[in-house]
Amino acid sequence: MSNSESIKRKVTPERIMLVTFLVVSAVFIIEPVIESYPDDARVFPQLTAAAVFIGSLLLLLQNYLPGPVRRFVAESVSITSSEDSEVVDQTETDQEQLEDTEPEAEEYKKDTLGAKYGFEVDETIFMVSTAVLYFVAGWAAGFLFVTPLYIAGYTLWFRVNPVVSVGLAVAGTAVIYLFMTYLVLPFDQGHLFDFSPLVPMLFDGAPILLRGGL
Amino acid sequence: MAVDAFFEGLSIATTPEMIMWLALGLLLGIVLGALPGIGSPVGMAIVLPLTLPLDATAAIILLVAIYSGAMFGGSIAAILINAPGTESAAATTLDGYPMSQNGLAKNALAIATTASALNGFLAAIALILLSPILIEVVLAFGSPEYFLLAILGISLITIVTQGSIVKGLVAGALGFMISTIGTAILSPRPRYTFGQFGLYEGIDFVAALIGMFAFAEMMKLAARKKISEGDVEIAGSVRDGITTVFKYPVTTLKSGLIGMGIGMVPGSGATTSTFVAYAEEARSSTKDGRFGDGDPRGVIAPEAANNPTVSGSLIPTLSFGIPGSGSTAVLLGGILMHGLQPGPVLFGEQLQITYALFISLFLGNILILLVGLTLIPYASKITELDTTLIIPMVIVLSYAGAYTLNQNWWDVGAVIALGILGFYMVRNNYSIIAFVLGIVLGPIAEENFFRSLQISGGDYTIFIDPINQPLSFLLSVAIFLILFGPFLKGRVERTLGRN
What we know:
- The complex is a heterodimer.
- Chain A is an all-alpha fold.
- Chain A folds into two domains: 3-105, no CATH class; 113-213, no CATH class.
- Chain A has helices at residues 3-10, 13-34, 39-60, 67-74, 90-107, 113-116, 123-141, 143-157, 162-182, 198-204, 206-213.
- Mean pLDDT of chain A is 79; it is low at 79-88 and 97-106.
- Helices cover 73% and strands 1% of the residues of chain B.
- The radius of gyration of chain B is 22 Å and the shape is globular.
- The termini of chain B are far apart.
């Protein structure tokens, strides 16, 4: 096995998550010392951060721990029985997870607009990326204007019937409009672009336009 | 006082407005529960911010109705397409789907409706009768006990989910840690805000719930195709299904008791109770059972256990603030969001709200029976929805709901960040219930932790003093035994075996 393959095997999502926990909990322990938090603001977060730090460190290093400690960290336990518990080798679990997920991904391949042009993206990655883009665009230009684009874009990518796609986009925008109207939320205003002057024309004027058209 | 509160609760629960919220919640719950991958925690988490304009009682009744409706709704997909809408309906697939394949889908759905509603109805009565005892127990608890209860809840969840105990504890402690972001509870000092004004109010626990349940669940759902691959034919007889439940009264009642009993244990929940009820029925019917091939008792047992689990799980949630499942964690979030305090307040000065909730549960089960039986011929329509249509709508509602809480973009960001975290936590067997419990209970635990230290003058032995704080001592012993008991037991057994 080459070095890069060995590193790739070791850098699993769980290990990345545990390292993140270690870094964040270390910040939670150090920050009150640097900023001189009073006792009543400091003790509880530091205690909980210490628990996260120690736990994450033990999980990260479980394969190198001595027998009894390793058993405590890795064993699956149950109130009723200790007989069927087992110590799991982290490397084996990681490998199993990799093997488990690959055929699953194959099984759930969806027909997408990208695939038609030879551009394939994992469904979960596509979902998260578009959700992040929707958040950023909503912050920049206001959810009211971005929502129809997001819904139509997402559904059309998965080759949903365009009529259904547009219908869903209209329904989603109506939900945002209701939030904006009844809960008085500034969903028509973005932090970078302000399209709010268009609202009376697009929404309040729509019934008038419809009546005129009829 | 309890009798007055009961009648006040009755008058609240029977107003047309409350019955409307109850019916709406049940319908919503049945539909959400029938959609595999959505289920009650996702539905409740999305609806939670929308309840902000409602008064506390209406909001809690709506949430409990969604929870109760989803318990029944989960069985629709389990029976028709072998894909449980909720985890609690997984046991129903074992005999429900074979019944459907044998041309008895209507019978199976009618059995599920009747058993679910009948036992939910009986469990709600039991809950009302049990409440005077609960009031006595709850009022005996003070600050040290409430802090220890939060730790006990996380410990129990860790052990009931049967994963690595350290993973469970890390998840719970991480939840506690994140709950400390923002202005400190006891002194007006901003913590871990790094100069960001938007973080002064901290990360709203409702946003965390939306992220952990709705966003993370959509990430899982993204990799799935249509919920139902083909046309589902609904054959059989509703009337025969109803009478089947009454042919097995022992199965029905026994499963109900199992459901309520397991529901009362913090950290367990309907997934455990339905499988235990199913296993017990299969064990006690070895002579004539055809379990796995479409035995109606295989549908009665889990369905008769699931709704009593809702009633059972309300006991630790309302009395001690310890939810037993994702749904009760969201419910607890709703209770706190509306300014209600589980424990002495809900069982003291606001006892009428608690009774209104119990009575709504009772009425809700009558509605489940009526709505459920009416819905049977149309049930398959729900399972034909495409996940591609569900995901963007849930994301839109999640963001709008999270922003509604405090008009804070950090809450929307938290939905994404915690959603991604939740997705990987579930994938690697970290308990998200323990994490969510940590976030929801963090402020309560911190407040009670400091109050206890103020009472003791900074002496930590207040949590383990057997003379002056016997209840705290017992809780500390229970936490120790839960966390280290299985290892000590194993060591003792090995030592004895060697000798």
